[in-house]
Amino acid sequence: MESQPAGVKYKKADTTYFEQRGLRRYAGVWSLWALGVGAVISGHFSGWNLGLASGGWGGMAIATVLIAIMYLGLTFSIAEMGAALPHTGAAYSFARTSMGPWGGFVTGLCENVEYVLTPAVIVFFIGSYLGSIFGTSASFQPVWWIVGYIVFVGLNIIGVELSFKVTVIVCLMALAVLGVFWVSAIPNIDFMTWAMNIGPDGAAIEGGNGPFLPMGLGGALACLPFAVWLFLAIEQLPLAAEESIAPQRDMPKGIILGMLTLIFSATMILFLNPSVVGVGAAALGKSGEPLLDGFRAIYGDTAAKLLAFVAIIGLIASFHTIIFAQGRQIYSLSRAGYFPTFLSVTHHKGKTPHFAMIFGACVGLAIMLFLFFTLEADKSAVAIGGTLLNMAVFGAMCSYVAQAISFIILRKGHSYIERPYVSPFGIPGAVATIVIALVTVYFQLLDPAYRAGVYGVAAWFAIGIAYFALVGRHRLILSPEEEFALEHQEKAATAVTV
């Protein structure tokens, strides 16, 4: 066995251990594209719009450009690392190779927060749409959340083939719904009157024609956490590496095509949705179903319920695909011993990490219910959906910083690793990712409405790190990620010596 890093111990695992944790290869480039786009697309239906209340349309536009730059730097870096290290561990795998077991675990823990909480945000908005359709009260919302988790965790457990087929179908349907909205909205917009109707105090301006930056540049930067929602989770593609037929070839193609698709869609929804006559940025800044508001303004209330069914497709697409990612992320850390190993056992027929998906769903649902009952006086989209969104974004930003650092270390210290794809943005792209992610976190901490959520994530980190320090680091398993990291640790050491 290769030399072990200081402070950790490896347990020997026989072939039965890995047989019980087997995955099945299925995905091609378009399945991966759908996995990435599908994971994000709900952010074009709900969530992003809450940023309008923080900085107006102009502030949200500036924030979206900055976040798009961050994601371009991140995704091209991930495309390079994912092709070079095609393991299910993704972010944890990259950091494990570059920064050792502790770096790998902390990065994996950051990503874990993102993938457990992001489905919770999405199912919150699904419940909001369903409440509008069926006229249920706010107190009924937990029922929608529970049903959503049961249905889509169940679909993901059945098998990877079904998971990817559903992913492709719902992703295409979601894009079709957005396309219908764009075409419908273009003849029914008045940008200056409705998109520019927020004043410096955040109140609606009758007749519009308000300032481009009603809350100034600070307001634009305060929009950053919400602009993230237009791209959040595109980075999950490498989690499907061991279920991809040719990850070295298809992973970069899938993630780059996905990013280009999302940039186009984000541009269209940001411009058109607030501009629809009768909607406006001020109203959208408080809405739990902004796309439905747009459809309702164009087609009238009589078609509202039918349109709500249509609009919910995008949320379902992301909910389904991020549950897939959540399961693989927990599975990879569990298979390597960082999390309890029972979580990585796969279903005997479907070869899907069912324990990991069920556990992640239960944690996400528990946090939602906690917020629901502790914020009982205010069950609005801003109070619950905004808090969950910011918690997910905080975990994501920490993960992005760690992955960008991993990229820089791998470029400088592990240049000998074969790279089937090379990022055109290189180290400058990774540095841009780090800077914008840290600025986003800073402005999250400035917002007292969401600071408690950030503190909650910090507590999550503390519990996870304590577990790893006391238990996990003494029980690591030589999974594919760990073997790769140990092998290249020796090579890197030799290269430095020479």
Topology (elements, then pairings):
Blueprint: E1 10-11, H1 15-19, H2 29-40, H3 52-84, H4 91-134, H5 141-158, H6 160-185, H7 191-195, H8 216-222, H9 224-227, H10 247-272, H11 281-284, H12 290-299, H13 304-335, H14 354-374, H15 381-413, H16 426-446, H17 448-470, E2 476-477, H18 480-497
Parallel strand pairs: 1-2
Write up what this structure looks like:
The radius of gyration is 22 Å and the shape is globular. The chain has one domain (10-497): Amino acid/polyamine transporter I (Up-down Bundle), CATH 1.20.1740. It is mainly α and 498 residues long. Helices cover 69% and strands 1% of the residues. The model has no long low-confidence stretch (mean pLDDT 90). Strands 1-2 form a two-stranded parallel ribbon. Its main location: membrane.
What is the compact description of this entry?
The protein is mostly helical and 498 residues long. The protein has helices at residues 15-19, 29-40, 52-84, 91-134, 141-158, 160-185, 191-195, 216-222, 224-227, 247-272, 281-284, 290-299, 304-335, 354-374, 381-413, 426-446, 448-470, 480-497, and strands spanning 10-11, 476-477.
